[in-house]
Amino acid sequence: MEINQALITAAGPGQSALPLQRLVDRDGIEKTALEMILAKVINAGIESVAIVISPGNEEAFRRAAGSHIDRVTFVTQPEPTGYGQAILCAKSFLGDAPFLHLVGDHLYLSSQSKGCVKQLIEVAAAEGCSVSGVQATRETMLPYFGAIGGVRLPQTERLYEVKRVIEKPTPTKAEQELTIAGFRSGMYLCFFGMHVLTSTSLEILGRLVAAEKRPVSLAEALNELADRERYLALEIQGQRYNIGVKYGLLNTQLALSLSGVDRDRVLSDMVELLASQKSS
Protein backbone atom coordinates (compact mmCIF):
# COMPACT_ATOMS: atom_id res chain seq x y z
CA MET A 1 0.00 0.00 0.00
CA GLU A 2 1.39 3.40 -1.00
CA ILE A 3 0.65 6.52 1.05
CA ASN A 4 1.36 9.67 -0.96
CA GLN A 5 -1.09 12.20 0.44
CA ALA A 6 -1.86 13.71 3.83
CA LEU A 7 -4.65 15.58 5.53
CA ILE A 8 -4.16 18.03 8.40
CA THR A 9 -7.24 19.31 10.25
CA ALA A 10 -6.96 22.81 11.72
CA ALA A 11 -10.47 24.24 11.66
CA GLY A 12 -11.79 23.34 15.11
CA PRO A 13 -12.98 26.03 17.53
CA GLY A 14 -9.94 27.34 19.39
CA GLN A 15 -7.64 25.26 17.20
CA SER A 16 -7.24 27.39 14.11
CA ALA A 17 -4.59 29.71 15.57
CA LEU A 18 -2.44 26.95 17.08
CA PRO A 19 -0.58 25.86 13.90
CA LEU A 20 0.38 29.51 13.40
CA GLN A 21 2.28 29.68 16.71
CA ARG A 22 6.02 30.16 16.41
CA LEU A 23 8.53 27.96 18.23
CA VAL A 24 12.26 27.32 18.05
CA ASP A 25 13.03 23.90 16.56
CA ARG A 26 15.80 21.45 17.49
CA ASP A 27 18.21 23.27 15.17
CA GLY A 28 17.63 26.58 16.94
CA ILE A 29 15.59 28.04 14.08
CA GLU A 30 12.28 29.79 14.70
CA LYS A 31 9.40 28.29 12.70
CA THR A 32 5.65 27.99 12.89
CA ALA A 33 4.15 24.79 14.27
CA LEU A 34 2.58 24.22 10.85
CA GLU A 35 5.94 24.48 9.11
CA MET A 36 7.40 21.91 11.51
CA ILE A 37 4.49 19.51 10.89
CA LEU A 38 4.75 19.89 7.12
CA ALA A 39 8.49 19.25 7.20
CA LYS A 40 7.98 15.95 9.05
CA VAL A 41 5.25 14.90 6.63
CA ILE A 42 7.15 15.75 3.46
CA ASN A 43 10.39 14.19 4.74
CA ALA A 44 8.42 10.96 5.24
CA GLY A 45 7.66 10.83 1.50
CA ILE A 46 4.26 12.52 1.31
CA GLU A 47 3.79 14.35 -1.98
CA SER A 48 0.69 16.49 -1.37
CA VAL A 49 -1.06 17.82 1.72
CA ALA A 50 -4.57 19.17 2.26
CA ILE A 51 -5.17 21.43 5.26
CA VAL A 52 -8.73 21.93 6.48
CA ILE A 53 -9.12 25.50 7.76
CA SER A 54 -11.83 27.91 8.87
CA PRO A 55 -13.13 30.58 6.47
CA GLY A 56 -10.86 33.59 6.16
CA ASN A 57 -7.71 31.85 7.44
CA GLU A 58 -6.06 30.86 4.18
CA GLU A 59 -3.67 33.80 3.91
CA ALA A 60 -2.35 33.30 7.46
CA PHE A 61 -1.88 29.57 6.88
CA ARG A 62 -0.26 30.21 3.52
CA ARG A 63 2.37 32.37 5.22
CA ALA A 64 2.80 29.86 8.05
CA ALA A 65 3.47 26.99 5.62
CA GLY A 66 6.74 28.64 4.60
CA SER A 67 8.77 26.88 1.92
CA HIS A 68 6.34 23.93 1.84
CA ILE A 69 3.45 25.93 0.39
CA ASP A 70 3.83 24.36 -3.08
CA ARG A 71 2.77 20.98 -1.62
CA VAL A 72 -0.32 22.36 0.11
CA THR A 73 -3.99 22.56 -0.90
CA PHE A 74 -6.37 24.45 1.40
CA VAL A 75 -9.87 23.14 2.08
CA THR A 76 -12.40 25.29 3.95
CA GLN A 77 -14.82 23.90 6.51
CA PRO A 78 -17.68 26.43 6.21
CA GLU A 79 -18.99 25.94 9.76
CA PRO A 80 -17.54 24.29 12.91
CA THR A 81 -19.77 21.23 12.62
CA GLY A 82 -17.35 18.64 14.02
CA TYR A 83 -14.11 16.73 13.60
CA GLY A 84 -15.55 14.02 11.38
CA GLN A 85 -17.19 16.63 9.17
CA ALA A 86 -13.84 18.46 8.84
CA ILE A 87 -12.22 15.31 7.48
CA LEU A 88 -15.09 14.82 5.03
CA CYS A 89 -14.49 18.32 3.64
CA ALA A 90 -11.34 16.93 2.00
CA LYS A 91 -13.03 13.88 0.45
CA SER A 92 -12.67 15.12 -3.13
CA PHE A 93 -8.96 15.79 -2.54
CA LEU A 94 -8.37 12.36 -0.99
CA GLY A 95 -10.40 10.26 -3.44
CA ASP A 96 -10.20 6.52 -2.80
CA ALA A 97 -6.50 6.38 -1.94
CA PRO A 98 -5.15 5.75 1.58
CA PHE A 99 -3.93 8.86 3.36
CA LEU A 100 -1.99 10.09 6.34
CA HIS A 101 -4.03 12.17 8.76
CA LEU A 102 -2.65 14.49 11.44
CA VAL A 103 -4.15 17.10 13.73
CA GLY A 104 -2.85 20.64 13.52
CA ASP A 105 -2.34 21.18 17.26
CA HIS A 106 0.19 18.39 17.95
CA LEU A 107 3.95 18.31 17.45
CA TYR A 108 5.96 15.10 17.54
CA LEU A 109 9.48 14.25 18.71
CA SER A 110 10.91 10.87 17.77
CA SER A 111 13.12 8.99 20.23
CA GLN A 112 15.02 7.37 17.35
CA SER A 113 16.57 8.43 14.06
CA LYS A 114 13.38 7.57 12.15
CA GLY A 115 10.69 10.23 12.56
CA CYS A 116 7.28 9.46 14.07
CA VAL A 117 5.44 9.97 10.77
CA LYS A 118 7.88 7.69 8.95
CA GLN A 119 7.44 4.97 11.57
CA LEU A 120 3.69 4.99 11.03
CA ILE A 121 3.78 5.13 7.23
CA GLU A 122 6.22 2.23 6.95
CA VAL A 123 4.07 -0.05 9.10
CA ALA A 124 0.87 0.89 7.24
CA ALA A 125 2.53 0.28 3.87
CA ALA A 126 3.86 -3.11 5.00
CA GLU A 127 0.60 -4.25 6.63
CA GLY A 128 -1.69 -2.88 3.89
CA CYS A 129 -4.33 -1.54 6.26
CA SER A 130 -5.31 1.41 8.41
CA VAL A 131 -2.92 2.05 11.30
CA SER A 132 -3.25 4.61 14.11
CA GLY A 133 -0.33 5.91 16.09
CA VAL A 134 -0.80 5.42 19.84
CA GLN A 135 1.11 6.10 23.04
CA ALA A 136 0.88 4.63 26.51
CA THR A 137 -0.97 7.31 28.49
CA ARG A 138 -1.94 7.62 32.15
CA GLU A 139 -5.63 7.71 32.94
CA THR A 140 -5.55 11.35 34.09
CA MET A 141 -5.02 12.31 30.44
CA LEU A 142 -8.02 10.35 29.10
CA PRO A 143 -10.19 13.52 28.80
CA TYR A 144 -7.86 14.75 26.02
CA PHE A 145 -7.56 11.71 23.75
CA GLY A 146 -9.35 8.90 22.00
CA ALA A 147 -8.23 5.49 23.28
CA ILE A 148 -8.12 1.96 21.89
CA GLY A 149 -8.60 -1.53 23.23
CA GLY A 150 -7.10 -4.54 21.52
CA VAL A 151 -4.52 -7.29 21.58
CA ARG A 152 -0.82 -7.25 20.86
CA LEU A 153 0.03 -9.01 17.60
CA PRO A 154 2.11 -12.17 18.14
CA GLN A 155 5.87 -11.71 17.85
CA THR A 156 5.65 -7.93 17.86
CA GLU A 157 6.46 -5.43 20.59
CA ARG A 158 4.52 -2.32 19.58
CA LEU A 159 1.78 -3.43 17.17
CA TYR A 160 -1.81 -4.12 18.21
CA GLU A 161 -4.99 -5.31 16.53
CA VAL A 162 -7.66 -2.76 17.41
CA LYS A 163 -10.92 -4.14 18.79
CA ARG A 164 -12.51 -1.05 20.36
CA VAL A 165 -12.17 2.73 20.06
CA ILE A 166 -13.69 5.24 22.50
CA GLU A 167 -13.39 9.03 22.31
CA LYS A 168 -12.20 10.53 25.62
CA PRO A 169 -13.40 7.67 27.83
CA THR A 170 -13.89 7.99 31.57
CA PRO A 171 -11.40 6.01 33.69
CA THR A 172 -14.21 3.61 34.62
CA LYS A 173 -15.18 2.96 31.01
CA ALA A 174 -11.55 2.60 30.00
CA GLU A 175 -10.96 0.06 32.75
CA GLN A 176 -14.02 -1.92 31.64
CA GLU A 177 -13.43 -1.88 27.88
CA LEU A 178 -9.90 -0.79 26.97
CA THR A 179 -7.55 -2.70 29.26
CA ILE A 180 -4.70 -4.33 27.34
CA ALA A 181 -2.80 -7.35 28.65
CA GLY A 182 0.66 -6.43 29.90
CA PHE A 183 -0.16 -2.79 30.73
CA ARG A 184 -0.02 -1.69 34.34
CA SER A 185 -3.17 -0.43 35.99
CA GLY A 186 -4.19 3.08 34.98
CA MET A 187 -2.28 3.08 31.67
CA TYR A 188 -4.02 2.98 28.28
CA LEU A 189 -3.13 3.28 24.60
CA CYS A 190 -4.34 6.70 23.47
CA PHE A 191 -4.15 8.27 20.05
CA PHE A 192 -0.87 9.92 19.11
CA GLY A 193 -2.55 12.42 16.78
CA MET A 194 -1.65 10.67 13.52
CA HIS A 195 -3.29 7.92 11.49
CA VAL A 196 -2.96 6.22 8.12
CA LEU A 197 -6.50 5.53 6.95
CA THR A 198 -8.13 3.73 4.04
CA SER A 199 -11.08 5.14 2.12
CA THR A 200 -13.39 2.92 4.20
CA SER A 201 -13.00 5.43 7.04
CA LEU A 202 -14.38 8.19 4.81
CA GLU A 203 -17.28 5.98 3.76
CA ILE A 204 -18.15 5.31 7.41
CA LEU A 205 -17.80 8.97 8.36
CA GLY A 206 -20.06 10.02 5.51
CA ARG A 207 -22.78 7.60 6.54
CA LEU A 208 -22.56 8.54 10.22
CA VAL A 209 -22.73 12.27 9.47
CA ALA A 210 -25.72 11.82 7.16
CA ALA A 211 -27.55 9.62 9.66
CA GLU A 212 -26.80 11.42 12.92
CA LYS A 213 -27.11 15.09 11.87
CA ARG A 214 -24.72 16.03 14.67
CA PRO A 215 -20.97 16.45 15.19
CA VAL A 216 -19.32 13.07 14.62
CA SER A 217 -15.91 12.18 16.02
CA LEU A 218 -13.25 10.26 14.13
CA ALA A 219 -13.23 7.76 17.00
CA GLU A 220 -16.80 6.73 16.18
CA ALA A 221 -15.83 5.91 12.62
CA LEU A 222 -12.67 4.09 13.71
CA ASN A 223 -14.64 1.97 16.17
CA GLU A 224 -16.79 0.78 13.27
CA LEU A 225 -13.72 0.44 11.05
CA ALA A 226 -12.34 -2.12 13.52
CA ASP A 227 -15.44 -4.26 12.84
CA ARG A 228 -15.29 -3.83 9.08
CA GLU A 229 -11.66 -4.50 8.18
CA ARG A 230 -8.21 -5.10 9.60
CA TYR A 231 -7.16 -2.10 11.67
CA LEU A 232 -3.96 -1.83 13.69
CA ALA A 233 -2.37 0.53 16.20
CA LEU A 234 1.35 1.23 16.39
CA GLU A 235 2.96 2.35 19.63
CA ILE A 236 5.13 5.16 18.29
CA GLN A 237 8.68 5.52 19.55
CA GLY A 238 8.52 9.17 20.45
CA GLN A 239 6.41 11.74 22.22
CA ARG A 240 3.40 13.81 21.20
CA TYR A 241 2.92 17.32 22.47
CA ASN A 242 -0.52 18.93 22.42
CA ILE A 243 0.08 22.67 22.09
CA GLY A 244 -3.62 23.35 22.65
CA VAL A 245 -3.77 22.38 26.33
CA LYS A 246 -2.74 24.50 29.32
CA TYR A 247 1.04 25.01 29.25
CA GLY A 248 1.10 22.90 26.09
CA LEU A 249 3.05 25.46 24.08
CA LEU A 250 5.54 25.90 26.93
CA ASN A 251 6.05 22.15 27.37
CA THR A 252 6.47 21.67 23.64
CA GLN A 253 9.09 24.40 23.42
CA LEU A 254 10.98 22.94 26.37
CA ALA A 255 10.95 19.48 24.77
CA LEU A 256 12.27 20.88 21.49
CA SER A 257 14.93 22.93 23.24
CA LEU A 258 16.15 20.16 25.53
CA SER A 259 16.58 17.79 22.57
CA GLY A 260 18.28 20.32 20.31
CA VAL A 261 21.46 22.27 19.71
CA ASP A 262 20.69 24.84 22.42
CA ARG A 263 20.21 22.24 25.19
CA ASP A 264 23.09 23.45 27.41
CA ARG A 265 22.07 27.10 27.14
CA VAL A 266 18.44 26.29 27.95
CA LEU A 267 19.42 24.15 30.95
CA SER A 268 21.62 26.96 32.24
CA ASP A 269 18.77 29.47 31.86
CA MET A 270 16.39 27.13 33.66
CA VAL A 271 18.79 26.69 36.59
CA GLU A 272 19.10 30.49 36.90
CA LEU A 273 15.33 30.89 36.73
CA LEU A 274 14.71 28.25 39.40
CA ALA A 275 17.37 29.77 41.63
CA SER A 276 15.87 33.24 41.30
CA GLN A 277 12.40 31.92 42.12
CA LYS A 278 13.66 30.09 45.18
CA SER A 279 15.48 33.15 46.52
CA SER A 280 12.44 35.39 46.07
Describe this structure in words.
The structure is a single chain. The chain is α/β, with parallel strands linked by helices and 280 residues long. It has one domain (5-247): Spore Coat Polysaccharide Biosynthesis Protein SpsA, Chain A, CATH 3.90.550. The chain has helices spanning 33-43, 58-64, 83-88, 91-94, 116-127, 171-177, 199-212, 218-228, 248-258, 263-279, and strands at 5-9, 22-24, 30-32, 48-53, 72-76, 99-103, 106-110, 130-138, 146-152, 159-167, 187-197, 231-235, 238-242. A 5-stranded mixed β-barrel has the order 8-11-9-10-12. Helix 2 (58-64) links the parallel strand 4 (48-53) and strand 5 (72-76). The longest helix has 17 residues, at 263-279.
Shape: globular
The helicity comes to: 25-40%
User: Helix/strand/pairing class, anyone?
Assistant: alpha/beta
What is the straight-line distance between the termini? 59 Å
Write the layout of secondary structure elements.
Blueprint lengths: L4 E5 L12 E3 L5 E3 H11 L4 E6 L4 H7 L7 E5 L6 H6 L2 H4 L4 E5 L2 E5 L5 H12 L2 E9 L7 E7 L6 E9 L3 H7 L9 E11 L1 H14 L5 H11 L2 E5 L2 E5 L5 H11 L4 H17 L1
Parallel strand pairs: 1-4, 1-6, 4-5, 8-12
Antiparallel strand pairs: 2-3, 6-11, 7-13, 8-11, 9-10, 9-11, 10-12
Helix pairs in contact: 7-8
